[in-house]
TrEMBL record:
InterPro entries: G6P_Isomerase (IPR001672), G6P_Isomerase_C (IPR023096), Phosphoglucose_isomerase_CS (IPR018189), SIS_dom_sf (IPR046348), SIS_PGI_1 (IPR035476), SIS_PGI_2 (IPR035482). Its EC number is 5.3.1.9. Pathway: Carbohydrate degradation; glycolysis; D-glyceraldehyde 3-phosphate and glycerone phosphate from D-glucose: step 2/4; Carbohydrate biosynthesis; gluconeogenesis. It is found in: Cytoplasm. The keyword Isomerase applies. One of its GO terms (cellular component) is cytosol. One of its GO terms (molecular function) is glucose-6-phosphate isomerase activity. This is Glucose-6-phosphate isomerase. Catalyzes the reversible isomerization of glucose-6-phosphate to fructose-6-phosphate. Gene3D superfamilies: 1.10.1390.10, Glucose-6-phosphate isomerase like protein, domain 1 (3.40.50.10490).
Length: 498
C-alpha cells in the first residue's frame, strides 16, 4: 500500500458518467440514500467503487473515526483555540455535560420566548434581529425557509453597517411594538454594536423611554453585553465552544423561535439530531456525509475544481447559499493544516450559486459549455407548498433536467451547439420543507464541512483570516500610522472625503 493515501486517488483512472452508469446497474442504489426525510443522490458524480475505497483508506489514514468521536465527545477539536466544538450538544447530541449545559441555557431561552408571548415586553409584533455572519445567517435562513406559513411576528434581520441597511430593516416597523435582539458571540463586533446604537436611538425617538429594556442580548460573552448596558435578565448565553457559523441551534435563533413558535424550533433541533446520529453511526458506504465529502474532494483535489455551485430549486431555500458560503468558506478556506504546516493542496472551494430556475437563465451557460469543471448541487423539495402544483412540478422537472443535461451532453457538428456532457451534479431532494428536514439538511452541511476538513487536515473551527481586515479598518478609522499605508489606499480615503 502506498504511504501517501492520496496517491491511489490521484492515479485512479476515471470513467465517464455514462460509462459508470452502463457498467454498474446498482450504481444508483449504492450512491443514493434516504436519511431523515431527505433523499441524497450522488450517482451523477464520478465516484466509483475504487474511488470510494481509496477515500475510505484516506479517511482511515487521517484518523477520521477518532476525529468524529472527538467532536461528539466534546474533546478539544478546535486545536488553535484550545476548545471543543459544541454545536452538536445544542441539539442534544454527544457529550452529556455539554448537552445538559445547553439544555439549561435553552430553558432560559424558552422562558424569554414565553415571556415575550405573554406580554412581558408589552404588545410585541415585530423583532429586529441584529447580528452579522454566524450571528444572523442561521436564524435568517430558518425564518426565511419556514416563516411563510403563519409567522407569528414580523422578523427583520439587520447585519450590514451600511446605514441604508438599518433604514431598510426598520421600514414600516413601530418602535413601540418592536423587540430588538442583538446577537453577537463576542459582543464587540463593530457592525453589530453600531447597529445596536442606531436601534436604541430609533427606539428612543419612537417614544420608548427605556430603550435598553427592549433589548435582548445573545452572546457567549455576557460580561461584554452587561458592559454594553443590557440587563442580566435579558442576556441569553451560549457556550464559547459553539462557533459563530455553527450557532443557529443556540439562543442565536431566539428570533426564529419567536417567529415560528417554540415547538417548531425544537423540531429543527430534532431533525439536526437525527442527522447527527446518521453521521455518527452509519457505516462508511451508508454514510451520506462521507459520500458527499468524498465527491467534494474528488473534484477539488484530483480534478482541480476551484468552485462548487449550489442551486436550491425552491424560493424558500434562497438563503441557503449565503449560509453555506460562510459555513464552508470560513471553515475550510485555510492554507495551513491544524498543526500549522502548509496545506500543500487546494483548500475548500469557493461556494456559489443561486435559485433555480432563475439561475438557468443567467449562469448555467458556463456550467454547460464553459471550460471549468464545476460540480453542481441541486436542492429541491418534493412536496408542493400547495399554491400552484403544476408550477411546482415544472420547477422540479427543470432541476432534474439540468442534472441530466449536464451529464448527458449533446453532440453536434456545430461546435457552438455542442455540449460535452459528463459534467457532475448531486441532488438533494427533501420530502417536504419543514423544521425537521431543514434541521437535518443544515446539520448535513455542517458535518460535510467537518469531514472535508478532517480529510484535508484543516481545523474548520477557527477563522483568523477575518481579523487583519478588521484591524486595518480600525487603524484607518483612528488615523493611526497613516503614513504606513500604500498610496492606493490613501488616495481612496482622500477621494471619498474621509
Ligand atoms: O458573533 P460575533 O462575535 O458578532 O461575530 C460575527 C461573525 O464575525 C466573524 O467573527 C467573522 O468576522 C464570524 O466568524 C462571526 O460569525
Amino acid at each position: 500500500m502506498p504511504t501517501d493515501p492520496w496517491t491511489p486517488i490521484e492515479t485512479h483512472a476515471l470513467q465517464s458518467l455514462e460509462q459508470l452508469f452502463a457498467a454498474g446497474p446498482d450504481r444508483l442504489a449504492t450512491l443514493s440514500r434516504e436519511v431523515a426525510g431527505i433523499y441524497f443522490d450522488w450517482s451523477k458524480t464520478h465516484l466509483d467503487d475504487g474511488l470510494v475505497s481509496a477515500f475510505a483508506d484516506l479517511a482511515q489514514a487521517r484518523g477520521f473515526a477518532a476525529a468524529r468521536d472527538a467532536l461528539f465527545a466534546g474533546d478539544i477539536v478546535n486545536v488553535t483555540e484550545r476548545r471543543a466544538a459544541e454545536h452538536v450538544a445544542e441539539r442534544g447530541s454527544g457529550n452529556p455535560e455539554a448537552v445538559q449545559a445547553a439544555a439549561a441555557r435553552r430553558a432560559r431561552m424558552r422562558g424569554l420566548v414565553d415571556a415575550v408571548e405573554a406580554g412581558a415586553f408589552g404588545e410585541i409584533d415585530a423583532v429586529l434581529h441584529i447580528g452579522i455572519g454566524g450571528s444572523v445567517l442561521g436564524p435568517e435562513v430558518v425564518v426565511d425557509s419556514l416563516g411563510r406559513d403563519g409567522a407569528r411576528m414580523d422578523i427583520r434581520f439587520l447585519s450590514n453597517i451600511d446605514p441604508q441597511a438599518f433604514e431598510d430593516s426598520v421600514d414600516g416597523l413601530d418602535p413601540v411594538s418592536t423587540l430588538v435582539v442583538a446577537a453577537s458571540k463576542t459582543f464587540t463586533t463593530a457592525e453589530t454594536m453600531a447597529n445596536l446604537e442606531s436601534a436604541l436611538a430609533w427606539l428612543r425617538e419612537g417614544g420608548v423611554d427605556d430603550a435598553y429594556g427592549r433589548v435582548v442580548a445573545v452572546t457567549a460573552s455576557p460580561d461584554a453585553a452587561l458592559a454594553a448596558g443590557v440587563d442580566e435578565s435579558r442576556i441569553l448565553t451560549f457556550s464559547e465552544g459553539v462557533g459563530g457559523r455553527y450557532s443557529l441551534w443556540s439562543a442565536v435563533s431566539v428570533s426564529a423561535a419567536l417567529a415560528l413558535g417554540w415547538d417548531r424550533f425544537e423540531e429543527l433541533l430534532e431533525g439536526a439530531a437525527e442527522m447527527d446520529r446518521h453521521f455518527r453511526y452509519a457505516d462508511g458506504r451508508e454514510n451520506v456525509v462521507l459520500t458527499a465529502a468524498f465527491a467534494d474532494l474528488l473534484y477539488t483535489q484530483k480534478l482541480g475544481s476551484q468552485t462548487r455551485a449550489v442551486f436550491p430549486y425552491d424560493e424558500r431555500l434562497r438563503l441557503l447559499v449565503p449560509f453555506l458560503q460562510q459555513l464552508e468558506m470560513e471553515s475550510n478556506g485555510k492554507s495551513v493544516t491544524a498543526e500549522g504546516q502548509p496545506l500543500g493542496r487546494p483548500s475548500g472551494p469557493v461556494v456559489w450559486g443561486g435559485t433555480g430556475t432563475d439561475a438557468q437563465h443567467a449562469v448555467f451557460q458556463l456550467l454547460h459549455q464553459g471550460t471549468a469543471l464545476i460540480p453542481v448541487e441541486f436542492v429541491a423539495v418534493a412536496e408542493s407548498d400547495g399554491a400552484v402544483p403544476d408550477q411546482h412540478r415544472q420547477l422540479l422537472l427543470n432541476a432534474f433536467a439540468q442534472g441530466a443535461a449536464l451529464m448527458r451532453g449533446k453532440a453536434s457538428d456545430d461546435p457552438h451547439r455542442s455540449y460535452a456532457g459528463n459534467r457532475p451534479s448531486a441532488t438533494i431532494l427533501l420530502d417536504r420543507l419543514d423544521a425537521r428536514t431543514l434541521g437535518a439538511l443544515l446539520a448535513f452541511y455542517e458535518h460535510r464541512t467537518f469531514t472535508n476538513a478532517v480529510l484535508l487536515g484543516i481545523n474548520p473551527f477557527d477563522q483568523f483570516g477575518v481579523e487583519l481586515g478588521k484591524q486595518i479598518a480600525g487603524q484607518l478609522a483612528s488615523g493611526a500610522d497613516e503614513d504606513s499605508f500604500d498610496p492606493s489606499t490613501l488616495a481612496l480615503i482622500e477621494k471619498a472625503g474621509l
